[in-house]
Amino acid sequence: MSTLLLLSIIAPLFAAILGYTFRRGGNRMAVAGAVISAFSALALAIFLPEKAMLEIYFSGLAGKEFLLKADLNSAIVSAVVGIVGLAIFIYALGYMYKKKGQTWFWPAISLFLAAMQLLVLAGDWFLFITGWEIMGLASYLLIATWHEKEEARSGSIKAFLLTRFTDIGLYAGIFLVIISQNNFYIPVTEGQTIPLAASLWLLLAVMGKSAQVPFQSWLSAAMAGPTPVSALLHSATMVGAGALLLIKLLPLFSTEALFWIAVVGSITILLTGLTAIFSKDVKQMLAASTSSQLGFMLLAVGTGFPGAALAHWLAHAFMKSSLFLGAGIFQEGYESTLYEKIKGSGKNFKAAFFGFAIAGIGLAGIPPMIGYWSKDSVLAASFKDGNIFFLITALTGAFFTAIYIGKALNRLWIGNAEKETIPKKSLMLAGIALLILFILGGGFFLEHLVKISGFEVPKDKLSKILGLLFAASGLLLGWFFRNSWFPAEASDFIRKNYPVAGGYQSLVIAPILKLADFTYKIDKLILSAIEKTGETTLTNSKASFSTDRLLKSGVRSIGSFTLFFSKLSEKMDRGIMKSVENLAAAVKSGGSTSKKWQSGMVHKELAISVAGLLVLVVILIFTITEL
Amino acid sequence: MNEIPLLTLSLFIPLLGSILLLFLKPQGHRIPNLIAVTAAALSAAGVILMGLRGITADFSQIEEVEWIPSLGAAYRLGVDGISYTAVLLTALLFLFTGIFSTRIRKKSSAFMALFLMLETACLGVFMSLDLLLFYVFFEVTLVGMYFIIAGWGHENRKKAAIMFFIYTLIGSLLLLLGLLSLYLHSDPHTFDMRELVANPPLSGMAALLTFWALFLAFAIKTPLFPFHSWLPMAHTEAPAEGSAILAGILLKLGAYGFIRFAFQMTPEAFAANAWIVIVVAVVSVIYGALVAMAQTDIKRMVAYTSINHMGYLVFGVAIATLGTTTAAERALDGATLQMFSHGIVTGLLFLLIGSIQERTTTREMPALKGLLKVYPLLSGFFILAAFASLGLPGLAHFPAEFQIFLGGYEISPITVAIVLLGLVLTSALYLRAIQRSFMGAEDRTVLEKMKDLDSRELWTFIPLVILIILIGIFPDILLNFIHETTKLITV
Known about the structure:
The complex is a heterodimer.
Chain A: H1 2-22, H2 26-47, E1 54-61, E2 64-70, H3 72-95, H4 102-121, H5 125-143, H6 150-181, H7 196-209, H8 217-221, H9 227-233, H10 239-249, H11 255-278, H12 282-302, H13 306-334, H14 345-348, H15 350-364, H16 370-385, H17 388-413, H18 425-441, H19 443-452, H20 461-480, H21 488-495, H22 503-544, H23 547-568, H24 574-597, H25 602-626
Antiparallel strand pairs in A: 1-2
Helix pairs in contact in A: 1-2, 1-4, 2-3, 2-4, 3-4, 3-9, 3-13, 3-18, 4-5, 5-6, 6-7, 7-10, 7-11, 9-13, 10-12, 10-13, 11-12, 11-17, 11-21, 12-13, 12-16, 12-17, 13-15, 13-16, 13-18, 13-19, 15-16, 15-17, 15-18, 16-17, 16-19, 16-20, 17-20, 23-24, 23-25
Chain B: H1 6-24, H2 30-53, E1 60-68, E2 73-79, H3 81-100, H4 108-127, H5 131-152, H6 157-185, H7 193-198, H8 204-221, H9 230-237, H10 240-265, H11 267-272, H12 274-293, H13 298-322, H14 325-359, H15 371-374, H16 376-389, H17 397-411, H18 413-438, H19 455-473, H20 476-489
Antiparallel strand pairs in B: 1-2
């Protein structure tokens, strides 16, 4: 069992290392790593008994060993990560066929998978942060796969920096948890709640990683990477890590903290839901939708139902990845993701379109797709909470989801697109097919999985009926939706992720760079002040001493240093004496070598003199104390 | 095996090599290279054997010979968890830098002689248990580094030398005053550092003055804001090997001094003034990162990040004077590990920059473009080292910084929050550097040599990369014995 746990992390890690070292065959190694990881995790989830705990301690900080830990909950999540990852890797085999940047792409995506598995299976905070941050690095590398393109470079930096900034919250929050609980390990037992400050710090980290308002914009910038990267980033990894952290920690949050989590989730559901509706680009729509769906998970956690959040997490992983993979096929065929350019492309790529439609309708919450069950449980959670604001938000969010899905289906199906073919489509479709299988069949197991993970799945009749009603009418409305119904400025503002006051670039980046330049100016001032002092000192010393004599006496004095002491003390050990003499000889010859090179440099000689002088001072003072 | 004087052997083997080179004066570069690498390797082997013999909480493996008994000075060597960390770093980094420097063709034998003498001096500083011995070695490191910069540096040596000279003068004088004060106040007068650590001799005004003298001396060496101006200057002009040793080892002299002298020998004065030190350290963290961000020369940029990293370290030491026992242990564990981590990471970065400089006509980042395309391995290593430097978990800096921050958080959450901003800033500046110079399409007009790493470079970089990852994942290799010592000294 321990081997299975280790393999699910180490297999992709080794694939990454070998892939970058040998610089060829990275694709085969990566897929092999993903296969091993997926099957190990799956086997772990199958064979691990309920309520059992598998623990591996190793290395560690002083007195605190690192811990890898699998219970049924984390094994199931790990299996889903493995399966979604594998499907995406298979798809990527086709997608990356004969594309540039493969020596870079495959190791990075393997590293990404390994980091996520580490995060899921981490038993202590140190390893958790490790998985969390390495995933950030891997996503940075992956978004920059085609770094010849400017938007790939800026997108990758934005992704890493924004999440790194919010990670201040992760560090501060985790420090506070460790100190207040006096526990280095990720707590599983319920008990005392953590201080509100710790919860809010952690919430900040989650908002960054899970792309919640106002940190949602890095997700759309991250689109510059290859499609499989987006698929992975938006589903079972990266953004999912934030929600996963909250699910793990739920018993520790106070009611006040939970309220704020729900508020953040609600705001994100609404704002990014609107962004998705107004998008003119299928991938931008999906990116906004990811934030919105993660918002649902935060809402579910905030209302106190981690089971609902986990259900939606698992379901969303399958749905969002297949939506992205489907969109990638249209993009390959038409070299664009703008609705305008890919109008009617669904008729050309029928299989891809149906995959996209199944996943999409699932996301909207139509049975029997997996999304119906999970969306239902989230809605039920918000109904049970009793806060009318959360209830309305959840329903509106479900409605929005249906609208943007309906709109996307309409754009992809209606219209006449030219016939296009893409190479290796079968591999790409194979990846999607694997995911679709889970979307169609997974719903029937979802509740069971969540329950054996140790969580409750909330149920509510009214929410079920209302949810279906809103989903169906939303899909219909979306099918006929026209951007022209709304004023252009408003829809532009929403589509561009609400760029208040110039957004990220002018609010954060520009001032920091200005501050950096200003600090550098100060630094130059300090430097010139010291240089002036130095030059004056040098001139003075030149005037008062003959530098040549000083140089000689300086070097000599180091030699005489040992002699002087040998006179002082008769007990001097001969061996030691010799070594000190050697030292002196070395310095001496060092001095004479230097003369050969450039005897014109005053300051150099002066430095030696000073060293010599210092030694003289030492001797002087010692003799004084002796007397 | 316990009878073999491993410390003395490891300490003087490089010096022997140096003397051999000076007397033989071999022509060409093959023999000097051979002698230098062999001596460094033997010394490193000795140091590793020392580690295998077992590092204890208190000073152990003492080697003592009477020197000037009337003064209380003796040849005393020994290591504890903290100094062994520094000794190990010194031996390893000198070995790999030595391998790297086999490229040098200009007066190869003189360079190697200096290089080996510098190694002995650096090892001596960390091994010495005697103030006098410590001071002698301390001074010799300055002289050695001075000649390396002056003899093998780049175009603008004069300015760098002036700066180095002024700071050396002031720093050494202050250190001397501090050490003498420690000596004169001990009763009976002794240079034995074990005595001074066990019974800090000073109190009241004398302790205060001594603490500030030591603080200034080490703040210049470390360096902290606003005593740092010599550092970027020296780095800009030093050859890659010089920069690697300067940043990797010589800065640790200051760091080690903070722990061994300021923290252990004037503990009360340090604790009383800890907040001033914390403020200086925090300012250094932010200031170093911001100035680094404004740089266009990639080497200067890395040089300034040292100020940032050393800020974390000194922050950790200052926290250790204030904290509860757990906080103090954590912070000091972190600070000691940070010495090692910064040594290998920044050492690697400077050597990599040396390799870049060999291949290009400029170090200016706006002109360097698309290095990844042309030198995938070199760039891959640089990116890894850069991420290590910005504190990515799984790599060497993180376990150190994690513990410093965790220890600090218990004392002062707000300062830690500010210090964490430093992490974001360093992330930003490294990402910008990678984006500007490594990614994108290459500009061949600034490239001279198109070949990726050769075997000499691989022999240098791969061990360092492995070390960086190893410390990131298995920090207990070092922390086990570091922690024993910090537990002992933070009571």
